Amino acid sequence: MPLVDMKDMLNHAYHHGYAVGAFELINLEMLCAVMDAAERARAPVILSVGEHHFDDFDVQLLMPAIEAAAARAQVPVAIHFDHGKSIDSATDGIRLGCNSIMVDASHLNFSENTRITKNAVAMAHACGISVEGELGYVPQAEEKQCKASDELAYTSLAEAKAYVERTGVDCLAVSIGTVHGRMKGKPRLDYQRLKQINEALKMPLVIHGGSGLSDSQYHRLISNGVAKINCFTGISELAARKLRESTRGTIGISYSQIQNMSKAAITSDVEKYLRLWGAAGRAAEVLSQCHIWQPIEQLLIYKPFAEQGLHLSTVYEVQAVLSRIPGVREVHVSEIMDNDSHYQYSWIIKFCHPEAVKACQTHPDFQSLKRKLFSPLEDNTLNLIQQRLAPRSPELTEISLKVAF
Ligand code: 13P
Asked: Are 68 and 36 within 8 A, CB to CB?
C-alpha cells in the first residue's frame, strides 16, 4: 500500500536535490501511463486531480481508479487535489481519497489569500492532510500575453515569509515566470527571486506551469529548492498529437489501438521527466523514509437517551451528519444482531487518517449529536459489545474495533 504522505515525499526530494512530478489526470489512460512510467523509473510520483478540469471528467468515477492504482503500486504515490476552489471542495477531495490539498486563493490579495489558506490548513492538518499554498499568481498562457505588468503577479520574498509563517503550509507554489498552458516563446524565469525565497524559507517549493521548459531551466529550478513540478499541458498535447497522427490516412485502426498509442507516448514522456528531474531510482529510499498513508475505520456505538432506542430515520440522519465532517470518507450503518434494543445500530466510519478521528470527535456537529442523542456507554457494556461483535463480523478484523467518544 505505498500511498505516502506528500509532505514527507517532498521533504525527501527537497533535501536530496530532486523534484517529484505531479501529473494532472483527466482519464484512465493518463493514470495508467503515468503509473507505468513511475514503475519503470522506480520513481515517487504525485497523481493530481485539478478542480479546474472537473467539467472534462467525472472525478467521482476516476478517483476510485486512482486510489486503486496507488494501492497496488510498487513505488510511493501521493494523491493531490489541485487548484481547489474552496475549502468545501477540498474537503470533498479528501473524502474522495486525496491525501494532499491546495485551495487556490492566489488570484486574491495577500490578506485574503492568507486568511483562506490558513483556514484550509486548519481543516486539513486536523485530518493529517498536507497543504500546498500558492503566493503570487501563475497566469494562464492566454492571460500573460495581455498583462501590462507581470511583475505584479510574481511572488514577493517578504510576503512569502509572512504567508508561510501565518498559514503553516507544507510547501509553497511560487510565481517566477512560468504560466499554465503553452506560452508563446521561451519563458524567462526569475532565478534570483527563487533563490532568495528558497534561502529564506528552506521548504519545498512548487512550480505550476511546469510543461515546456528546457532541461537546463528544470535543473536550475531544482537546484533552487523546487521539489514538485506540476505538469498537464505537455502530456495532454502529446496525447492529442498521437491521436491525430494515428488516425491520419489510416483505415481500420481501432479505438483501443489509438488509446494504446497515446498512452505509450505519455509513458515515455513522463519517464523522461522523472529521470530528468532526478526522481528516478528514488522509490525505495522514499518508501523507507516516509509515513505510509493509512486510513482507519472505527466503529461508533452509542447508548441512546431514549428508552425505545433510535428511530431508523435518526440513524440515517446521524450517518449524513457524520459523512459531512472533514476527514470522514464513508459512513456505513450496521445493524447489531442483538436482543438488547439499546444497541440496535452502529456506524462504521472510514477516516482518511488516524488524526481525523480526533478532529471528528471534537467537531461541533459531532458534539451536538452526542448531546442530543446519546449517553456514554459503561465500560462493561463496551467489553460486551466488543466480544459479541468481533467474532460475528469478520470484515471488522482489520479495523480498530473501538467505540469512539
Ligand atoms: P502546465 O500547464 O504547464 O502543464 O502546468 C500544469 C499545472 O501547473 C497544474 O497545476
From this structure: no
**Residue 22 parent element (H or E):** strand 20-24
Q: Tell me whether residue 58 is one of the annotated catalytic residues.
A: no
Ligand 1 close to Cβ of residue 208 (< 6 A): yes
Task: From residue 64, give the alpha-carbon distance in Å to each of 3, 46, 75, 99.
Answer: 14, 16, 18, 13
- Which residue from 80, 103, 233 has its CB within 8 A of the most atoms of ligand 1, so it is best to mutate? 233
Pocket of ligand 1 contains residue 132 by CB under 6 Å? no
Residue 122 lies in a domain: yes
Q: Looking up cell 519545498, which residue turns up? A: 204
- Amino acid 292: pLDDT: 92
Least confident of 44-58, 181-195, 230-244, 316-330: 181-195
Whether 210 lines ligand 1, by a CB cut-off of 6 Å, is yes
What gap in Å lies between CA 286 and CA 76, rounded to an integer?
7
Tens digits of residue pLDDT in 293-346? 988 988 887 766 666 667 888 889 989 999 999 999 999 998 776 655 566 778
CA atoms within 13 A on the CB side of 302: 23
Shared domain for 137 and 270, answered yes or no, is yes
What's the rounded Cα separation, in Å, for the pair 300 and 47?
32
Neighbours of 306 (CB within 10 A): 12
Q: Name, in order, each residue with C-beta under 8 angstroms of 156's C-beta and a sequence gap of 6 or more.
A: 135, 136
- The mean pLDDT of 229-237, rounded to a whole number, is 96
For residue 190, the 8-state DSSP code is -
Kindly report the average pLDDT of the chain as a whole number: 88
Domain for residue 1, yes or no?
A: no
Q: Which of 82, 92, 170, 269 is catalytic?
A: 82
Decide: 227 in ligand 1 pocket, CB within 6 A.
no
> Nearest 5°: phi and psi at 59?
-65, -30
What's the CA gap between 83 and 105, in Å, rounded? 9
Contacts 24+ apart (CB under 8 A), 315-321: 315/345, 318/347, 318/369, 318/373, 319/347, 321/365, 321/366, 321/369
Q: Among the three residues 289, 317, 352, which one is the final residue of a domain in this structure?
A: 289
The protein residue with its alpha carbon nearest to ligand 1, atom 1, reads: 209
Q: Which of 232, 266, 289 is the last residue of a domain?
A: 289
Residue 171 falls within a domain, yes or no? yes
Q: What is the pTM of this model?
A: 0.91
> Does the CB atom of residue 180 touch ligand 1 within 6 A?
yes
